[in-house]
Fold this sequence. Notes:
The protein is of the alpha/beta class. The chain is 32% helix and 15% strand.
Amino acid sequence: MNIVKSLILISGVLAFGLLPACQAVPTLVPSPAPTLAPTVTPTPAPELPEYESIPGVYLGTFHGTKASSIDLFEKTGKGVAISASYLNWSKGFNNGLLSANSYSGRTTLITWEFMPGSTSTVADYEGRVLEAIIDGAYDEYLTSWATGMHDFGKPVLLRFGHEMNGDWYPWSGIFNGGGTLDGYGDPTIADGPERFVAAFRYIHDHFSKNGADNVLWVWCPNAPFATMQNALGDWNNAAAYYPGDEYVDWMCFDGYNWGTSSFGQNFNAKWTSFDDIFANSYAELQAINPEKPIIIGEFSSTEEGGDKAAWITDTYQKIRTEYPQIRAVIWFHISKETDWRINSSDAALEAYRNAVSDDYWLSEWPGMKE
């Protein structure tokens, strides 16, 4: 549009009263775009360590075959959430044991002991019996157990090859190649621990293939770890036996206060506190995995050489305040090498009753009665 035509158009508008002469042509100013609030991505709360999902410490006991022992613990005002049993590989799957415990609100900790002896199955595996497992010689037996566990369906703690860093069981590293490097697998890893790890993984995988996902796998060296390592060699460190996070649900250790008991004198034992036995090994377990719950698979104190009642009081207090990753304990409640029972004296029993009276100490495993 040229200047002349623009003037004519404006004059016409004024002449016909379409706009008052004094009113300017409005200028259209676009509205500003709305200001959007910045998108704030909330910082997710840090996940709690796995062990903190458990609201306290499960109480457990190995009580042999006497039902009266369970009754004793219940009379203290606290039953047990875990009933421990020892089964060797000559025994078939025992659904009755698991069901009886489940009916009473307990789960079962099975210490599964590989005692092959001098059978034809391991005739060609002298000095390396764990390889027989790895080579599939026990697959049929493993399948029967895995199927039984799957059919049972409820949680079961399974502890294969406990105290493997000692020198008293056929599955121990010392009896499966020890610190040698050239007999199995990786030539940079000691054969004894390497065979143990391979056997543990093989058993675990066999159960998984058969759908036994209700099994909770417990890995359990003997404490103090440093004592075992010093006795047999640097190759015998506890961490070398760890099968890996995906193969372990509960880390574990065993330990006892032997005091001046006659059996303890075979290895120059003396009265030892809970810290003496477990503190350094607890730190080693934390270094392996600071997230997983820890169970004490076996522990107790003699009466000989000190004050057992005071030992019990101190132990349970320390577990609660200084060992938060420990979420289950199994008291070795039989008279064997010495009187390990919780009621070896009235004072010991009363100390235990007082020590576990708080709700932090759990006497039922969830979901067992359902």
